[in-house]
Amino acid sequence: MQYLSVHNKSYQHGLRVLTIFCLLMTSHVFGYELTLIHQNTKHTVNQSEFHALTNQSLVTITPWTDEPHTFQGATLASLLKHFKIEGKIAKAKALNDYVVEIDLQKAIAANAFVVSHIDNQPMRVRNKGPFWIIFPWSEQPELNDRQYQDWSIWQMIEINVE
Q1: DSSP notation for 137-160
Q2: What digits encode the pLDDT tens for the residues 16-47?
Q3: Which residue ranges make up each domain of the chain?
Q4: Helix, strand, or coil here: 88?
Q5: Hey, how many other C-beta atoms are within 10 angstroms of the C-beta on 48?
Q6: pTM listed for this prediction
Q7: What does DSSP assign to residue 127?
Q8: Element (H, E) at 36
Q9: Rounded Cα gap, residues 86 and 103, in angstroms
């Protein structure tokens, strides 16, 4: 009987450890954040927070998708305005440390859109998430050129505005 009692306590302890481990891994895997940096000030939001503060959608094709999708997020202009950020250049950084330099005046004029959801689902790394800059290619096919494609950084985690 003593062995059964000790065994049950070990089993329960193991389940607790496994549960905590799974919770930590889930928050690590799905807890991506977008950090906006300007003049030594950082604003960080996770996908859920970003989705709550943005309430815009864009239906468009992209050079990387076969059909139109509904993207949820915010225009780059409204996102920067929300955090009171102004500048001329943005350096957007991806999960793999790839960085692209974006001319903010041109990108905002072209209605650059920062998205976190596609077809009402949070974007995951495997489908270009957690955040992606896109453009309204269906409405403005002239934007389907090398410059705007280069600015369409996916798996984005940071925007540093200078």
Answers
A1: TTT-GGG-SHHHHHH---SEEEEE
A2: 555 444 444 443 444 689 999 999 999 999 98
A3: 1-30, 33-161
A4: coil
A5: 12
A6: 0.80
A7: G
A8: strand 33-38
A9: 12
